[in-house]
């Protein structure tokens, strides 16, 4: 590790007027020069404070240290423990007095550079490399939420629930096997491998080698399940750890993952998928899935409005409850930045197809596997075969009254929080209709604030219904028929989305 840091940063030192240890009683080194040295001590990056009068005063671990300004020439540096200390102790630190403000600025710049480099280093483990300090996931996700999350997915029962979702598992299998050309002889990384089923699909499609990265205890089961397929297991390596912290011996030609949660973004695993892309994927590599779309449409459901309030509702509903054709928001996994997923703002605009009361916004998603041979969609749309994701509906605090042809506008604003989900802010409004139309303005507005992490699971299935003779099947629910153009993707998708959805609601 010392050599690795030394490649980028050389040991440096700064002269200080004085330092004062934060201990009891306070100890000071008066009237003698003090030198602060950045370096690697016992294999650990740190700051060593040395007095010409009394030798070493203290060494602080840079991985655990924080530096704060108290004034132009005064700062305080605190760490959880001293590198050289062998006993359990409370946090330790020193106040630093600089001779000039320029020296203070130089010290702070060096501190940030060394700390950033220290955070990027790792210690070798049997299955790869893990960071010695908190990674991105640990910084942004509450520890209790992460513990529950990995415990949940570490249980075979929940993996079984996903494996038995034949729409999910069957679509992934078809997307991989139908695009053997993308996998044959290629290196694949399975992000959040779970039971290892997608790794087995990739190996079956001819992958040169598959790295199955899984952070939960399911990694141990995955090893056993993969070992039970000896013809494939020699080309699969299970790596236990988070994609934010593990290191792999080679870059990948293709990433495969199932990062979708309720409303596509719940659980915030899309961020890990994007991080894996930036860390492991070769330029021009492929991602399965390639992009996702969140579909949203106003709905009318008197029974649901009476039944529930203040929670997003997860269930399967009859698509005839929709009041207008849906709009969609596209997330391109190959281009989106991690920060783009921290806050998602979606403007909404509809034209009502009937006179009714609007009770909220219905949402679902689909994802595209943009293979070289076949483009395959996985959809969770209402009216399609039900998946374990179902659909989700956001119920307004008060319904809106609309007439056929009346415009509905609004906004869906989603803000990520540290419990691996989103706070949702929904507003829908209707504009004046009839004789006063020329006056413009909004006459009705309703909103709600919901936590996507705490939905109400309403698992009653919609009743089967027969299409009228003049009613066309909903083409929206067969999105795999859409041909994706490499250029101007979003405009193409939005145009087809509007045309297809209109057929259902005419």
UniProtKB/TrEMBL annotation:
<dbReference type="Pfam" id="PF06325">
    <property type="entry name" value="PrmA"/>
</dbReference>
<keyword id="KW-0489">Methyltransferase</keyword>
<keyword id="KW-0805">Transcription regulation</keyword>
<dbReference type="Pfam" id="PF25350">
    <property type="entry name" value="PH_PRMT_N"/>
</dbReference>
<dbReference type="Pfam" id="PF22528">
    <property type="entry name" value="PRMT_C"/>
</dbReference>
<protein>
    <recommendedName>
        <fullName>type I protein arginine methyltransferase</fullName>
        <ecNumber>2.1.1.319</ecNumber>
    </recommendedName>
</protein>
<dbReference type="GO" id="GO:0005634">
    <property type="term" value="C:nucleus"/>
</dbReference>
<dbReference type="GO" id="GO:0035241">
    <property type="term" value="F:protein-arginine omega-N monomethyltransferase activity"/>
</dbReference>
<dbReference type="InterPro" id="IPR029063">
    <property type="entry name" value="SAM-dependent_MTases_sf"/>
</dbReference>
<dbReference type="InterPro" id="IPR055135">
    <property type="entry name" value="PRMT_dom"/>
</dbReference>
<keyword id="KW-0963">Cytoplasm</keyword>
<dbReference type="GO" id="GO:0070611">
    <property type="term" value="F:histone H3R2 methyltransferase activity"/>
</dbReference>
<keyword id="KW-0539">Nucleus</keyword>
<feature type="domain" description="Protein arginine N-methyltransferase">
    <location>
        <begin position="308"/>
        <end position="419"/>
    </location>
</feature>
<dbReference type="InterPro" id="IPR025799">
    <property type="entry name" value="Arg_MeTrfase"/>
</dbReference>
<keyword id="KW-0808">Transferase</keyword>
<keyword id="KW-0804">Transcription</keyword>
<feature type="domain" description="Probable histone-arginine methyltransferase CARM1-like N-terminal PH">
    <location>
        <begin position="12"/>
        <end position="116"/>
    </location>
</feature>
<dbReference type="GO" id="GO:0035242">
    <property type="term" value="F:protein-arginine omega-N asymmetric methyltransferase activity"/>
</dbReference>
<dbReference type="GO" id="GO:0032259">
    <property type="term" value="P:methylation"/>
</dbReference>
<dbReference type="InterPro" id="IPR057622">
    <property type="entry name" value="CARM1-like_PH"/>
</dbReference>
<keyword id="KW-0949">S-adenosyl-L-methionine</keyword>
<keyword id="KW-0156">Chromatin regulator</keyword>
<dbReference type="GO" id="GO:0005737">
    <property type="term" value="C:cytoplasm"/>
</dbReference>
């Amino acid at each position: 590790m010392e050599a690795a840091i030394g490649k980028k940063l050389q040991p440096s030192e700064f002269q200080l007027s004085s330092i004062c240890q934060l201990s009891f009683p306070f100890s000071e080194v008066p009237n003698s020069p003090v030198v602060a040295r950045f370096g690697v001590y016992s294999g650990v990056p740190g700051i060593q404070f040395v007095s010409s009068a009394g030798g070493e005063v203290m060494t602080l671990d840079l991985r655990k240290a924080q530096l704060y300004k108290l004034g132009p020439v005064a700062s305080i540096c605190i760490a959880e423990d001293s590198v050289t200390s062998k006993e359990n102790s409370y946090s330790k630190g020193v106040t630093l007095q600089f001779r000039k403000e320029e020296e203070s600025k130089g010290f702070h710049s060096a501190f940030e550079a060394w700390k950033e480099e220290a955070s990027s280093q790792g210690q070798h483990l049997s299955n790869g490399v893990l960071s010695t300090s908190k990674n991105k996931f640990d910084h942004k996700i509450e520890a209790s939420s992460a513990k529950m999350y990995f415990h949940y997915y570490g249980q075979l029962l929940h993996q079984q629930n996903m494996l038995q979702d034949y729409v999910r598992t069957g679509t992934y299998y078809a997307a991989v096997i139908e695009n053997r050309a993308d996998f044959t002889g290629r290196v694949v990384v399975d992000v959040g491998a779970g039971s290892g089923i997608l790794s087995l699909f990739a190996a079956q499609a001819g992958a040169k080698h598959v790295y199955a990265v899984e952070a939960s205890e399911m990694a141990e089961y995955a090893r056993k399940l993969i070992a039970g397929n000896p013809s494939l297991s020699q080309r699969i390596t299970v790596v236990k750890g988070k994609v934010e912290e593990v290191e792999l011996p080679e870059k990948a030609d293709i990433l495969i993952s199932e990062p979708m949660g309720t409303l596509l973004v719940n659980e915030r695993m899309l961020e890990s998928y994007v991080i894996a892309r930036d860390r492991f994927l070769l330029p021009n590599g492929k991602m399965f899935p390639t992009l996702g779309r969140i579909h949203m449409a106003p709905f009318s459901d008197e029974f649901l409005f009476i039944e529930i309030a203040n929670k997003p509702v997860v269930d399967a509903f009859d698509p005839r409850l929709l009041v207008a054709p849906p709009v969609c928001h596209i997330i391109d996994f190959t281009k989106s930045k991690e920060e783009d997923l921290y806050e998602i703002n979606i403007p909404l605009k509809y034209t009502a197809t009937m006179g009714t009361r609007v009770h909220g916004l219905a949402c679902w998603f689909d994802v595209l596997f943009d293979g070289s041979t076949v483009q395959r969609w996985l959809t969770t749309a209402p009216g399609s075969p039900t998946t374990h994701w179902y659909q989700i509906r956001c119920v307004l605090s008060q319904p809106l009254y609309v007439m056929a042809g009346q415009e509905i506008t609004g906004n869906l604003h989603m803000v990520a929080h540290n419990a691996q989900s989103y706070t949702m802010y929904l507003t829908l409004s209707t504009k004046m209709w009839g004789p006063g139309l020329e006056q413009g303005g909004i006459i009705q507005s309703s909103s709600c604030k919901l936590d996507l992490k705490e939905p109400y699971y309403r698992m009653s299935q919609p009743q089967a219904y027969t299409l009228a003779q003049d009613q066309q099947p909903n083409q929206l629910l067969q999105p795999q028929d859409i041909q994706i153009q490499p250029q101007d993707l979003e405009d193409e998708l939005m145009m087809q989305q509007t045309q297809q959805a209109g057929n259902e609601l005419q």
